[in-house]
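2024-03-11 09:14:02 DEBUG pipeline.ingest accepted 1 chain
2024-03-11 09:14:02 DEBUG pipeline.ingest length=260
2024-03-11 09:14:03 DEBUG pipeline.predict start
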Amino acid sequence: MGSWQPSPTLKASAIVHAGALASLLLEPGTWPAAAGALAANHALLTAAGLLPRSTLLGPNLTRLPAAAAARGEVVISIDDGPDPEVTPRVLDQLDAAGAHASFFCIGQRATAHPGLVRDIIARGHTIENHSEHHWKRFSTLGPGAMAREISAAQASLAVLTGRPPRYFRAPAGLRNPFLDPVLAPLELQLASWTRRAYDTRNGDPASVLARLTKGLAGGDILLLHDGNAARTPAGEAVILEVLPALLARIRAAGLAPVCL
C-alpha cells in the first residue's frame, strides 16, 4: 500500500490552521486576523482544486517523464467511456494507425459494457480510473465519499481488465485536498494532461485539432473524449473526425503514441 506524504501546500495549510487556533486560544481579540488567514488559505486550496494541472495539492502527472519525451513518446488519453457507439470506431481508428492509447473509463459505464472493456485491452490499450459515476460534484465530496467513489471504480475495473488501474483522473480534472490521501493507499497516481481541446462542448474538428497539436512535442499527454463527446454540425462525435488527423500529425512529427 502507498504511504501518503502531504504536499508543501498542505503542510503550510496545517500550520496556518494550527497558528490560527493557537492565536484564538491565547488572544481571543485576534480573531479577525485569524479568520482572514483561514479565509485566504481556503481560497488558495479551492483555487488549486479548480486548476486541473496544478501540483499544489499533491503530485500530478501533466507530462511524460524526460526519458519518454526524449524517445518521442506522446499519450492520447480518452475519457468518459466506454461508449457503445463511439468507442468501437475509436478503436478501429487507433488500429488503422498502429497506435495505442489510455482510456480513462467511468466504472459504471465499464460494468455496463464489459465486452467493450475487454476489446480495449485486447487491442493493446490500457484502462485507467475515472471514478465510478463521474459526478459533477466530485470535487465537493468528503474523504469517505471520495474514497468510495474511487475504490468502487478501481475494484470493478480491476475485475474487468485483470489488473488494477495505475492512474486516476478526476472528473473534469477538479478535486479538493482530500484526493491525494485517498489515492495513496490505492497506489493510484493522479494524471491530468498537457493540453485539452474541450471536445465535450467544442464540436469544431479543426479547432479541436489545432488546440491539441499546437506545440506538439514528445512527452505530451493529450485529452480527448469518447464518452460525452461534442457533436460536429453533421452530428458526428468530434473525436471521430479529429483522431485520424491527430494521429497523422503525430506520425509526421516523428512521435509515437503510447499508453500512459
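2024-03-11 09:14:41 DEBUG pipeline.report The first strand starts at residue 73 and ends at 81.
2024-03-11 09:14:41 DEBUG pipeline.predict end
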